[in-house]
């Protein structure tokens, strides 16, 4: 099944399979054909079939999948060398030698992304590496880059003093308590916030997620 490390290495409690399947379906809907259990011993057949660019990406288990543009391989040095690619060692793991900017390997038209270039790292780093490789392949194939989504630039962080100056200090609403007599009957001392108090508490949020 497709999904790599996200399927076999992340528990369902942290990454529900329904969400993973939904994301994979989105990829398929873009026109990507995923071929499973397809052994790839050499890149030559792919090149002979007319593929002008190949992306090699590491998998989370010993298996090779091949699609319209992707050959995902286990990070074994003998497999990578069999592809005719230069290999180096990163923290005891085999990784491909690539150009840091374009992510092209020692063979023209063959690119690499993910753990096979970085060594074991996080999923988000692998995804970012894949996006960078896609940009490079797009340029390599002569595209004008019109497909690229507009990038959102991160805001410059505010200084601590400026941040404090802009804060509107609001005190937390005091939680109402019942009398001792009522507490003995109810078994609780706090009766919770009123609707007005809850709204006021919500407005104290700094909304760090907003642009403005």
Automatic annotation (TrEMBL):
<dbReference type="GO" id="GO:0016491">
    <property type="term" value="F:oxidoreductase activity"/>
</dbReference>
<dbReference type="Pfam" id="PF07992">
    <property type="entry name" value="Pyr_redox_2"/>
</dbReference>
<protein>
    <recommendedName>
        <fullName>FAD/NAD(P)-binding domain-containing protein</fullName>
    </recommendedName>
</protein>
<feature type="domain" description="FAD/NAD(P)-binding">
    <location>
        <begin position="15"/>
        <end position="130"/>
    </location>
</feature>
<dbReference type="InterPro" id="IPR036188">
    <property type="entry name" value="FAD/NAD-bd_sf"/>
</dbReference>
<dbReference type="InterPro" id="IPR023753">
    <property type="entry name" value="FAD/NAD-binding_dom"/>
</dbReference>
């Amino acid at each position: 099944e497709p999904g790599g490390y996200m399927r076999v290495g992340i528990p369902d409690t942290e990454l529900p399979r329904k969400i993973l399947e939904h994301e994979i379906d989105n990829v398929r809907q873009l026109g990507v054909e995923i071929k499973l259990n397809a052994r790839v011993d050499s890149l030559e057949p792919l090149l002979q079939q007319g593929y002008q660019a190949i992306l090699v990406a590491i998998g989370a288990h010993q298996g090779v999948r091949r699609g319209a543009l992707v050959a995902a391989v286990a990070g074994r040095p003998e497999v990578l060398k069999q592809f005719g690619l230069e290999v180096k060692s990163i923290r005891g793991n085999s990784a491909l030698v690539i150009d840091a900017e374009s992510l092209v390997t020692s063979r023209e038209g063959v690119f690499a992304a993910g753990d096979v270039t970085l060594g074991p790292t996080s999923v988000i780093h692998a995804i970012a590496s894949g996006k960078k490789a896609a940009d490079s392949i797009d340029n390599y194939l002569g595209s004008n880059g019109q497909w690229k989504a507009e990038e959102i630039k991160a805001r410059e962080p505010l200084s601590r003093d400026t941040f404090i100056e802009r804060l509107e200090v609001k005190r937390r609403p005091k939680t109402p308590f019942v009398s001792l007599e009522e507490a003995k009957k109810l078994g609780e001392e706090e009766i919770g916030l009123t609707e007005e108090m809850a709204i006021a508490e919500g407005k104290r949020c700094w909304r760090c997620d907003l642009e403005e």
